[in-house]
Amino acid sequence: MRLFVAIEPPASVLTELAAAIEPLQAAAPELRWTNRTAWHLTLAFLGDVDEAVLPELTARLERAARRHPPQLLAIEGAGAFPSPIRARVLWAGIRADNRALASLAASVAAGARRAGAPPPDEGRKYRAHLTLARCRQPANVAGLTAALAGIATTAWTARSVHLIHSVLGGREPRYDDVGEWPLVAAAGAGT
Asked: For the whole model, what pTM was predicted?
């Protein structure tokens, strides 16, 4: 199973984001734009995970979520990986308490590792983002990042994390929720 752990923005925030990027999509048809069903804030990409690991993984993710408070988030700004002039990925930024969000991401990654599903990108600096488009070849998206620099959605409070199964095939991947766990620790509580 191809899995990742994520926070899902509410529908109203996704509608705001869709309105902001819609005019840009027609101006850059060479990009593979993601659709709103793919818009999520990945905390840890786990890759291919053996189904036998799932019971331990879900228990550890539940424990990790309980140790963290709800997160106040908003979509804000944009950027590209590795850079706007040689982009492979165009993304929208996330306004958050970066330390708290990175701590949550580290906790779910550690839980996955202990369950036997080590994230392949573990050890890289966590960069909260929401993928908007992918580039088949490195592309200059500096104009798009500039156009999206002022984007700012309504803030929302993320109250849970999701384990999501990414089913590849067809034109777009399909995402199935495997589990959801509440963020419940009091703000300022230890992790």
From this structure: 0.91
Give every CB contact of residue 9 below 8 A, 6+ residues apart in sequence: 17, 39, 40, 41, 73, 75, 130, 153, 156, 158
Pairing of strands 2-7, 41-48: antiparallel
Q: What is the CATH number of domain 2-182?
A: 3.90.1140.10
Domains of the chain by residue range: 2-182
Using alpha carbons only, how large is the chain's radius of gyration in Å?
17
CA-angle at 176, arms to 148 and 116, nearest 5°:
100
pLDDT tens digits for range 74-129: 999 999 999 999 999 999 999 999 999 999 999 999 999 999 998 888 778 899 99
